[in-house]
């Protein structure tokens, strides 16, 4: 079962566009579909931009003790794709930050040249996920790399598969209760898992999570400065105009900041993270 794309795109502010484009194109095998001196659009299928990179001359490196991006997670269609990229990373000795089995998924973790966290993962069959009421079971175990590599293909890694999407986005936030209210009561995401007292996982349509929220390194922190590198905003895809109207009313009810511009909703979560919603 392929999940519909809920997180449509992420926009990152970067200091060095050339270096970032090289990484996403040459290391991860994405396609560059638009490019100027200040901006580049990054795609898996050659048509749909998953990432937009925007260079600012006055950009300063993001303080890790601010709210913002924890990681962007790229969901591949097949386990063989994950096996091929693992084999490729082994061959090229590219440094990874981790490799985990979360029961619902198998994942690799790394960072781009400006320190933005990246997860590359595949989902296990949703029929094998374990639900305890309305809470999904997720864990973190070491990835069985040897077992995974048995799925590697003879042709090997040929770049990011065309059907790759942003499966989820994980954010570090200042606190969880107002944040839960914003994403649950405001944006209409279901709370799928409360992970101890420091993380929430939220989704639509009983997915394991479209949005992760944690305070592991960020409890009580401020939002980054406007010219900070990192996440500028991310875009959530809405299925129709009825859903858009409903979310606008919900955001008004909880007094969340909101403007409408060119048919899109612009809002900001309680930790200062900017979000665009569009049909």
From TrEMBL:
PANTHER family: CATECHOL-2,3-DIOXYGENASE. The keyword Coiled coil does not apply. The lineage of its organism: Bacteria, Bacillati, Bacillota, Bacilli, Bacillales. Residues 6-123 form the VOC domain. Keywords: Metal-binding. Pfam families: Glyoxalase. It comes from the Bacteria. This is VOC family protein. One of its GO terms (molecular function) is metal ion binding. Gene3D superfamilies: 2,3-Dihydroxybiphenyl 1,2-Dioxygenase, domain 1. InterPro entries: Glyas_Bleomycin-R_OHBP_Dase, Glyas_Fos-R_dOase_dom, Glyoxalase_1_CS, VOC_core. PROSITE patterns: GLYOXALASE_I_1, VOC.
